[in-house]
Design goal:
Number of strands: 40
Distance between the termini: 31 Å
Largest sheet: 6 strands, mixed
CATH architecture of the largest domain: 7 Propeller
Shape: globular
CATH superfamily of the largest domain: YVTN repeat-like/Quinoprotein amine dehydrogenase
Number of domains: 2
CATH class of the largest domain: Mainly Beta
Radius of gyration: 23 Å
CATH topology of the largest domain: Methylamine Dehydrogenase, Chain H
Strand order of the largest sheet: 3-6-7-8-9-13
Length: 664
């Protein structure tokens, strides 16, 4: 059951839904009288009033597109126009506190100025020199099965079981020698009621201001529990910032919690104004049919509210809280594919376990409906595979979607490409993964027109290199060229990596230079290590590993979460965050307690030890980020545990957790 707390008076009705560019807040004004900014940003007819952060913003990214003059000189002006007019690009720059290129540069600069941030791009940071390629001996091959691989028992390693008590961490990420044995400060932990969570599932976070933090900001979590009159399927918390200048002394407020009548275990997505949420719901755990749920929320507090279905034709005018469910036309089940929202066209794409990709139109602003022929589109190579989450490139209009494990060993999937305008299956790479299939959505840089796919067990040299290799496959968005980079050997599912801020701010548009971070098995195969791949001209270069990232640190015979990077412009630090299902040093010696880590990658040098960590039951879901350091208590990370654990004072279950970016 969801832990309930009384709802204190908030200022949500004053400024929660203001149609303004942003609400700059000083520490004294925070949570009191808002000061709305004088303008707003409307990009391609889409008005940006706040900052949504969900799983899609960690898979579709934009390196620096450069100036218009550079694009003309490079012959990429058409691409440049599409990138700088993409709402996702502007949202990314606002979230990261970075200047923008193109027609909205002045609007973004005004927002940055209100936050006291530079309004022009800084000089590029040089890429750290490479020490040369790393030689990785073959690890132990461990058989596994989707969704959770089977692992042999491992001997106890160094370290001790971490306490669940809050332990102060360090004051910052940059400078000095990092200390792995500093535990993270967990600000709050709330019981969601479920018993397990998906590895690639992300919560969603909405900031009502583009310039600061608000007590009305909220975070949305699925519960991965069957809905009932006492058990919500989705929950949101506001008053989420605690500490100095925060909204609550120690706990957030339940903003709303709804039973939508099914089972929700995949990542939600948000409308641009934050007033609506979309997610996939199955009839039950492992039970078809799947539906796309569109939900208008209202502050209903800490009481589970059961919502009845509103007909799609009446949804636009229904009074919140209300929802409509659009059952997949083929009545399919969806085990792996979260919805992807196209801001510019008000469209959602989502896959199912029968190899069909669905398209829904008018989802947040029009008349919601599933698109007809040729949709849903069958995506396969002659065999039915479950689809993972799709991502869309706004430049080409193409959708990229991976195929996952279908229960037949050695017949795992590849990576497909579709053209959205016609709904035609156009091209694909052949089988990529031999053991697990593709587990995670592709990482796409629309500015550079490059995709990166993460493969845990390469199927053959034809498509990805050497069988049993863990591989990053880089390819253009047209699939006209590609390169594989082998990280090592082993049978581990792979999850999406992430770029650093050096890559995002590279001064070479279309061919960015920086780093890609990815987790891969160590030479023994019993642990995972964090690898740094140098990217130069959008091509993977030599892998660099730090001696601190070996068998004494991460992934005790286990798989890891996707990586999340965030550049905190106010603090001037760049962090990479990830979790392990069962960890080694610092969290557990038995392989039964998971962990979450933070790593400082600001300088571009091979990072040292994790600067902070905390134990988490079963590891972590995907991690999202809220703000730059507007004040203490408002620069946080959010995730759920993968297994049932003790959630603050709220009993045992899957926990929704907020922790500090910098362990203050």
């Amino acid at each position: 059951m969801i832990e309930r707390f009384p709802k204190p008076a908030t200022v949500a009705t004053i400024f929660g839904m203001l149609w303004a560019l942003g609400i700059p807040m000083s520490r004294t004004a925070y949570g009191q009288q808002p000061q709305p900014a004088p303008s707003q940003i409307t990009v391609g007819g889409v008005r940006i009033t706040g900052i949504p952060d969900d799983w899609t913003h960690h898979h579709v990214v934009f390196s620096n597109p450069g100036t218009e003059a550079e694009a003309i000189a490079n012959g990429t002006h058409g691409r440049w126009l599409k990138v700088v007019n993409d709402p996702r690009y502007i949202i990314q720059q606002l979230h990261r506190g970075q200047p923008a290129q193109g027609p909205y540069a002045a609007d973004v600069a005004r927002v940055l100025a209100a936050r006291g941030l530079p309004t022009t791009l800084p000089p590029p940071v040089p890429v750290a020199p490479e020490p040369g390629p790393s030689s990785l001996p073959p690890p132990v091959a461990i058989p596994g099965a989707h969704p959770a691989p089977r692992f042999a028992a491992q001997p106890d390693g160094p370290g001790s079981v971490a306490s669940s008590a809050q332990v102060p961490g360090i004051s910052g990420m940059a400078g000095g020698t990092p200390d792995l044995k500093r535990r993270w400060r967990r600000d709050w932990s709330e019981n969601l009621g479920g018993t397990s969570q998906g590895l690639t599932t992300f919560p969603a976070k909405y900031s009502f201001s583009t310039t600061g933090a608000s007590c009305s900001d909220f975070a949305v979590f699925n519960t991965s529990a069957q809905g009932s009159s006492t058990q919500a399927t989705v929950v949101a918390y506001n008053n989420i910032y605690v500490g100095t200048g925060g909204c609550a002394s120690s706990l957030p407020t339940v903003y709303w919690e709804y039973n939508t009548g099914g089972y929700v275990h995949l990542s939600p997505v948000l409308s641009l104004d934050g007033s609506q949420v979309a997610f996939v719901q199955n009839a039950g755990s492992g039970t078809a049919p799947a539906s796309l749920v569109l939900l208008k929320w209202k502050n209903t507090g800490a009481t589970v509210t059961t919502l009845s279905n509103t007909a799609a034709g009446s949804y636009r005018s229904c009074t919140a809280p209300c929802m409509t469910t659009l059952t997949f036309t083929n009545s399919g089940f969806d085990g792996f594919s979260a919805p992807y929202y196209d801001y510019a066209n008000d469209v959602i794409y989502v896959g199912d376990n029968g190899s069909y990709l669905h398209k829904f139109t008018g989802v947040f602003n029009g008349s919601p409906a599933e698109a007809g022929s040729p949709w849903p589109v069958l995506v396969n190579e002659g065999t039915v595979y479950p689809l993972v989450a799709p991502v869309q490139d706004s430049v080409t209009g193409n959708i990229f979607v991976g195929t996952s494990y279908n229960g037949t060993a050695g017949a795992a999937g590849g990576l497909e490409c579709l053209v959205t305008s016609a709904g035609v299956f156009t091209s694909y790479f052949g089988q990529l993964d031999h053991e697990y299939g593709i587990w995670d959505a592709v990482l796409l840089d629309s500015s550079a027109q490059e995709t990166y796919t993460f493969i845990g067990d390469c199927a053959s040299s034809t498509n990805c290199g050497t069988h049993n290799d863990t591989v990053v496959l880089e390819a253009t968005t047209s699939f006209s060229a590609g390169e594989t980079y082998a990280l090592g050997t082993g049978l581990y599912p792979m999850f999406a990596g992430t770029f650093d801020n050096i890559y995002f701010t590279s001064s070479t548009p279309s061919t960015p230079t920086g780093h890609l971070y990815v987790l891969s098995p160590t030479s023994s195969g019993s642990y995972q290590q964090l690898l740094q791949i140098t990217i130069s001209g959008s091509t993977p270069g030599d892998t660099m590993t730090s001696a601190t990232y070996d068998s004494s640190d991460f992934g005790y015979g286990t798989i890891m979460s996707p990586l999340t990077e965030f550049y905190n412009a106010t603090a001037g630090r760049d962090g990479v965050f990830f979790g392990a299902e069962a960890a080694a040093s610092g969290c557990s010696t038995t392989g039964t307690v998971g962990c979450v880590y933070g790593v400082n990658v600001t300088s571009g040098a091979v990072p040292g030890a994790a600067y902070a960590f905390s134990s988490e039951a079963g590891g972590t879901s995907g991690i999202i980020i809220d703000n730059g350091a507007v004040f203490t208590g408002a620069d946080q990370i959010y995730f759920t545990t993968l297994s049932s654990g003790t959630c603050g004072a709220g009993g045992s279950g899957v926990c929704a957790i907020q922790a500090s970016q910098a362990a203050p």
